[in-house]
Amino acid sequence: MRVLLVEDERRLAGLVRDGLSGEGFAVDVAHDGRDGLWMATENPYDVIVLDVMLPRMNGYTVCARLREAGNWTPIMMLTAKDGVYDEAEALDTGADDYLSKPFSYVVLLARLRALVRRGGRERPVSITVGDLVLDPAGLRCRRGEVEIALTPKEFAVLHGLARRAGEVVSKSELLAQAWDFSYDGDPNIVEVYVSALRRKIDQPFGRSSLITVRGAGYRLEAT
Amino acid sequence: MRVLLVEDERRLAGLVRDGLSGEGFAVDVAHDGRDGLWMATENPYDVIVLDVMLPRMNGYTVCARLREAGNWTPIMMLTAKDGVYDEAEALDTGADDYLSKPFSYVVLLARLRALVRRGGRERPVSITVGDLVLDPAGLRCRRGEVEIALTPKEFAVLHGLARRAGEVVSKSELLAQAWDFSYDGDPNIVEVYVSALRRKIDQPFGRSSLITVRGAGYRLEAT
DNA sequence: AATGATCTTCAGGTTGGCTTTAGGCTCCGT
DNA sequence: ACGGAGCCTAAAGCCAACCTGAAGATCATT
Predict the structure, then answer these.
(1) Chain A contact probe: residue of B68, B75, B89, B91 with most A CBs at under 10 A
(2) Do A125 and B106 touch (CB under 8 A)?
(3) What is the pLDDT of residues B74-99, one digit of tens each?
(4) CB-based contacts of B70, cutoff 8 Å, min separation 6
(5) Rounded alpha-carbon distances, angstroms, from residue A55 to A45, A81, B140, B151
(6) DSSP line for B24-39
(7) Which among A68, A55, A58 has a CA at the least distance from the CA of A94?
């Protein structure tokens, strides 16, 4: 059971880490928002404990970014009870549960277990474009009844297109969405993936839903 | 924020209605499928909460009918977890998200908000000149029901004209809009594009909506 | 280590949009 | 009627954008 703890107060972080380790959790700790987002993106965790007030990027933003990126790991938000931050906002941005500071360790443990057990939120919003269905929770995709196997990168690119079905999405936008912030490779990579996607989602079905708009980008149509 | 709740269990419907009302939603309730379909058709809602098992018409059918009719209001499906109904089927018929009963009210609220937020993203306004429709987001154009393929440059020129439909737009204005600042080629290029546009948007339809105003520029009319 | 899957780079080939050119046409003033 | 300025448009060259197969690099798993 892997836990990511994003908490800048070193003392609290240490206590929680030690406690959870003793319960059999494998705990990674990040000390600011950006590191937390990075680690959550790079590793698969079973649950993330996320403080709201963090240096370099607040908890809401981290949470929202993860959800945007299709990461639906259960998130427990830690909110300081000084009234500035709203608990409902935590749930809005995609958190699954929250705990107000100060909290007792026993309560945290119980709620964490509950969260892991029920698997967090049931499912993210699915995207439908014609008879093409994307399920971000399982990184799954199908056209009609036919399941289509996609690699994570392929899915990310298709997801970026599907979220704005009917609109032209530029190559640089796709790059920004599906690749790391600081990817500086050949933008041609997008073409390579579009090509692969067409071979999977269009050709076998005799469709042409993934349109090239020369000089502008690509458009996914609900053919 | 208007919500349509289609749910036959009176007690549950009442609870949800009261809760959502308290959050500032305006809630209408229908107690069977056919009423629900009717109300959804007649009124504009921001989101629809739809039980699967309903008298007189089940949730899948209501959902499918709405989508067939071109109604794309975000739909949250409520599925009873007794295995008879499949969640995937909900997504198939065009639902945007689903929630398994029993669910907690907090979760429903959070997911509803997520749905509305996503569905609420409005596309850039399309421009209409008579029966000519321009969709800037998709770089698409059609006259009536007929889709017209335009290159990005052609679209840019037509867009410049359509935004000021009925007015005369000078060649230099079009140049400034559709070409780079640093373009120093032949202004004749505008004539070339106007020519190409006429061949595409007027000739096939026996129209003449793109008028030359000698010595001044061009005017697009809502013929 | 070895294997297989995925990601990325590379390079050759192709396409199609942009621009220029040039000859013909239209309008308008003289 | 005539000439010229402004406009139209077919045609063709050019070049950036794009496609795609293949090979190398990376990563995860056994």
Answers:
(1) B91
(2) no
(3) 888 887 755 545 656 666 677 877 77
(4) none
(5) 22, 18, 44, 47
(6) T-EEEEESSHHHHHHH
(7) A68
